[in-house]
Task: structure prediction
Amino acid sequence: MKVLFIGGSGNISSEVSKYAISKGIDLYHLNRGNRPTLTGIKNLIGDIHDVESMKKVLEGHEWDVVVNWIAFKPNDVLQDIELFKGKTNQYIFISSASAYQKPPKFPIITEDTPLENPFWDYSRDKIACEDVLVSAFQEFDFPMTIVRPSHTYNTVIPITIGGWEEYTTVDRIKKGLPIVVQGDGTSLWTMTHAADFAIGFVGLFGNEEAIGEAFHITSDEVMTWNHIYETIAASVGCKAKIIHIPSDFIADYSEKIGFPSKRGSLLGDKAHCAIFDNSKIKRVVPEFKATIPFEVGIKDTIDWFEADESRMVVKQETNDFIDGLIKTYGHSY
Result:
């Protein structure tokens, strides 16, 4: 099976790439050549946003599957349709579970949950991309599949403030400093390890049941945000000093001081419960089962950060934001 990843070296896609290679897939990455090449992958160098030059790069290639990991706006998808119509048997778009209705009207999310997010431009853009692909499938049988990852981690720290590609909140935990958790910390959330995600995702490749369909692929493990932060603290041998602050207060404060806005990622996502019904992906990909509990996966992630000091990025502006947020809300320490 000949597969093209547009992107492919990110937090989720790197693990998917490794798994795809282990399954004997002939995998190509299309990128600008700025990142190290994974063993076993063939590279195509180019800018996916330059359609005319991409036609030359892709000349002579036909694909069983094309996956775009870096399409965020409708025009990105329209360009892909132009490039790959008649050139691939399946096109997989990476959407987002944040596209699901916010606030939710029903606690369990299925693929039929409405797509509606009035709080986050990122999510609305993903919804618009999906609309383009659904129309292309309906109008001329463009062989699309939509995948909506939720909070999927591997080489990122999956928390609300002071995490992802930075180490700031973990550093605060290790120093005994307070950290902020949105709301009262009791809303339910789902974390998925990229290695688990990869099994379900690669199982969609060339799968006739996936054409014209949308899927989310998540763990069945459900945790409170308090438990998530406590588990991260335990992974570094500490206890978390948690201060709870309402999501709308965090969002207002971030915008007031000019810190990158938290409104979309909180009110449009993490302020709400996220519990997923994975019966659809399990039916179409019977081998899919999430087996990595968060307490195991996050320990591996923290170990990965700590294996290279350059990854342990502590940002003073994030520390200042957290300290100011706590003080403004009326806490002292």
In short: The radius of gyration is 20 Å. The chain has two domains: 2-151+192-216, 156-191+222-274+292-329. The CA atoms of residues 28 and 146 lie 20 Å apart.
